[in-house]
Amino acid sequence: MALAEYVRAHREQFLEELIAFCRIPSVTAEGDDGWEAARWVARRLEALGADVAFWGINGAPPVVYAELGPANASRTLLIYNHYDVQPADPLDLWETPPFEPHVRGGHLYARGVADNKANIVARAQALEAWLAVQGELPLRIKWIVEGEEENSSPHVAQVAAQHGERFADADGCLWESGYKDSAGRHVLYCGLKGIAYLELCSRGAAQDLHSSWGTLVPNAAWRLVWALATLKAEDETITVEGLMDHVRPPDPAELEHVRRLPFDAAAIRERHAISEFVGGVDGPDALVRHLYAPTCTICGLCSGYGGPGTKTVLPAHAVAKVDFRLVPDLTPELVRDLVEAHLRRRGFADVEVILVDGVRPARSPVDSAVAQAAAAAARDVGGHEPVIYPNMAASGPMYDLCDAFGIPAVGFGVGWPGSNVHAPNENVRLDDYFEGILMMAAFVERFAQGT
């Protein structure tokens, strides 16, 4: 009760602190060096008494590493977050500027507030409240905050290789983000899909030509379209030879767990204005597919002329950006190799396949101590049974920081289905935010106690 009173007494101060962090336009994928946001995080953690260091890797945005709490504690918690945010485009769809945070209707609107600056600040404020009210923390905390998650964390594996001994002893990890579902239940997740982000490039003539040369000169755009069409069938089956042979199917216990999870298929279709899911799946089968199946997605195509009016051009160059969401036991390098071999067999050896970036999939047991502590905290604070997913359908560097060291992970946070993550008008509900502070404190206590 005293901790909740502390949070209530500091509500306006805590909100202003979050607003200040969200003002920092930390879009590192567009050239921001990350230092302003990294220094903000470092100062906030130092205010808790943490020992803070910056880990620099090859000129990449700095990684903030912090340790706090008693060194002789019986349990150590690793926390992972990222301070970088998605680009704000398209700007004309924002009701208020993305880096000028606004409170309206009980929501805070800003780019990056849900993904995942609110989670960073709520966790720090929970620890502040604990220290002020309870005294010494009941566990050791090791905290990693990086600046490239929205760009597939290309340097995290190197960070783990160089500094892994600093956090490899963690008993569990609290991952970066999470949300409540449409019924108001906390959603916890214990893993992530991986990703292989590829560029497929086709080249024809030395330069763009007048389209009348289409009688004799190869069209790079058509060549690439034909190659792309071999990757996936009209029934949504991935047709890259050998890829599905590396997909580990869920075991009976996993299937039973997933089929018990709430999943409102009709509401999801209505939200996205679609009549049916791909492949015609529905109900629990749709959720199983969403969590356990890989994907092959054309994210973008670039070739020739796409401006206003007409330009009769025969493109000399075409590029497609394609991502594969990965499940165990696929890896980014394996997918690249399989796609290259597939295209060669289909007569497209001339189409270049470039692995732009990627992360491996990760998955922890849903009954691990850290997951059960999070579930208990959700019951303590939210008064309801949480929903525990074996993994999210999204991706992140959980394999490099957790699976590779045998550290089980769980994620929870302060988002909601209308948070508009990666979209205009990103937001969190303020009531969820302040509840998230209390849930973090309850989680720390539960995990330290082993419950």
Q: Could you tell me the number of beta strands?
A: 20
* CATH class designation of the largest domain: Alpha Beta
Strand content: 15-25%
Looking at CATH, the homologous superfamily of the largest domain is Zn peptidases
Silhouette? globular
What is the percent of helical residues? 25-40%
Structural class: alpha/beta
Low-confidence stretches: none
Cross-sheet strand order for the largest sheet: 1-2-6-3-7-19
CATH architecture of the largest domain: 3-Layer(aba) Sandwich
Explain what you see:
The protein is α/β, with parallel strands linked by helices and 451 residues long. The chain folds into two domains: 2-190 and 364-449, Aminopeptidase, CATH 3.40.630.10; 194-247 and 293-359, Alpha-Beta Plaits (2-Layer Sandwich). It contains 13 helices and 20 strands. The protein has helices at residues 2-9, 11-22, 35-46, 113-133, 156-163, 220-228, 252-260, 265-272, 283-292, 332-345, 369-382, 398-401, 430-449, and strands spanning 51-55, 63-68, 76-82, 102-104, 107-109, 140-146, 172-175, 179-180, 186-189, 191-203, 209-210, 297-303, 313-314, 317-326, 352-359, 362-363, 387-389, 392-395, 409-411, 427-429. The strands form five sheets. A six-stranded mixed beta sheet has the order 1-2-6-3-7-19, with helices on one face. Strands 10, 12, 14, 15, 16 and 18 form a six-stranded mixed beta sheet that branches. Strand 1 and strand 2 form a beta hairpin. Helix 4 (113-133) crosses helix 13 (430-449). The longest helix has 21 residues, at 113-133. It is globular, with a radius of gyration of 23 Å. The chain starts with a helix and ends with a helix.
